[in-house]
Amino acid sequence: MTYSSAYILAAFSFVDEFIRFRDGSYLSHALNVALFVLLLSVVYLVFQLYIVRSRKFRSGSRRKILQNKINNFLSELIFSDDQSEEGYDDQISKFKKRVPIDKNWCKDLLIQNIIDLDRNFKGEVTSKLLSIYFKLGLQDYTLALVKSPFWFYKTKGLYYWRELKYGGKLSLVKKLITSKNPNLRSSALITYISLAEDGPLSVLEEYTESISLVEALNILEIIQRKKIKKPPNLASWLNFKEPSQLIFAVKLIVYYNDLSSADEVVKLLHAENPKVRLAAFEACRRLFLVEAEPILRSRFAEESEENQLEIIKTLSEIGSEDAATFLLDLIQSPQTSEVVIASMYALSSLDGDFEQRSFESNESLKAAKAHVLDPYLSE
Amino acid sequence: MKSVLLIEDDKLISSLVRFRLNKEGYHVTTVEDGIQGLDAIENGHHDLIITDVMIPYKNGIEIINHSKKINPKIPVIVLSSLGEEEATVIKAFEMGASDFIPKPFNPNELSVRVNRLLRH
């Protein structure tokens, strides 16, 4: 008898001992069946894992092969000597026969490659990309994605259009801006602003939902990248009722340095919503609205600490001697350490005699002044 | 035939650049990471090196440094999507880069710059 057979017999004997009661009877039949089912489940799970793993490996290598084919195809197509329409069509139809173009994963890979080319290259190369997209018939696929009943496919289609700078179906994109799904709505809004040529920001006038911080940043990035002109009626946007839209309008006024809306911005210092007031405090600083100073001082006591810090920051930029006196009084009254430090920094930029001022009677103010004057700790 | 070493981890970019430079009559060797790049510099003869700044294992600045130690006469062109970052540009030129091309770039322009460095 070999060692392995001995081990197997020992294992059987152990299991036998384990499932047998002291009186010699075995566990119930149901328990045996349960153990058998458990064993089968484990075997099935291991088998499934093996299948998933091998399928993933196969698809990975298939993608790798296709990627190489795409690299060669795009390079040859873009730099081929025959740039005629017929030459293009010929190369594209040959390529279509060599790849599984009817599979969605292949279409996704092709579109992603065209997007990557657009991101990394400029000039003659990129001017050909949209025509390659059409000639490969990928527009039908992206249209089907956008028309799909599932929001995640729709957003994928919108992403493709946005990155490919394809604005051929803007009416379809605009319809999705009113979707109930926030992800889809957001994607459609960004796509529309990114693709529309005439007054893309006017869509915000019809937009009834709130604008999240991420959306606001995305839209500002598009405005900067596309150099979108200031909407003609931007000042009227300060009448928006929805706070996040109002805050975004204030950000746009700052971005476009729209000083003609200064009075309206100053009025917002009294807005009911604290977040709107916070945006207005920042706008007064960035637009250098010195007329806001008395209001900032008068509002200070009623504000939250976050808003107070913003007021101090603004006073440090636009404040007069009155602001310096206000800040001096402020630090001598009980305040949080953040407010004291911010006020000290503001004083150091407003008060010409700051370095001569001694706060001998107050140790914490003395320490705060030393902190502000320390060149290694400067803001 | 002049030889160009291209160190770029994006296969699509390297394929396109290789194709464009081949058309100009250059032999192009492509590698995908910094270690392969250093190996190719040490063991091969190249008339020009084109390197991305952000590559696996080593960065483009280290590639310039290494190539200048081995042969300071080999010109190096740096490609980078960090084009706006002044510090990277300055560092690349301090290390001895001959040219700096920010991404996105025009492959025809790259080809002109390669011609300028290799034919003069």
Please tell me about this protein's structure.
Chain A: It comes from Mongoliitalea lutea. Chain A: InterPro entries: ARM-like, ARM-type_fold. Chain A: The chain crosses the membrane at residues 30-52. Chain A: Keywords: Membrane, Transmembrane, Transmembrane helix. The complex is a heterodimer of chains A (379) and B (120). Chain A has 379 residues and is mainly α. Helix content of chain A is 69%, strand content 0%. Chain A has helices at 3-19, 29-79, 85-98, 104-120, 124-127, 129-135, 138-147, 151-164, 170-176, 182-195, 203-206, 213-226, 243-255, 262-267, 274-286, 293-299, 305-318, 321-332, 337-350, 363-373. In chain A, helix 7 packs across helix 8. By secondary structure, chain B is of the alpha/beta class. Chain B is 47% helix and 20% strand. Chain B has 5 helices and 5 strands, in the order βαβαβαβαβα. Chain B has helices at 11-23, 34-43, 60-70, 86-94, 107-119, and strands at residues 3-7, 27-31, 48-52, 76-80, 99-102. Chain B has a 5-stranded parallel β-sheet with strand order 2-1-3-4-5, with helices on both faces. In chain B, helix 4 links the parallel strand 4 (76-80) and strand 5 (99-102). The longest helix of chain B is centred in the N-terminal third of the chain and has 13 residues, at 11-23. Chain B is globular, with a radius of gyration of 13 Å. The two termini of chain B are 15 Å apart. Classes of the chains: A mainly alpha (379), B alpha/beta (120). The A-B interface holds A 67-68, 70-72, 74-76, 78-79, 113, 116-126 and B 10-13, 15-16, 18-20, 23, 81, 103-109.
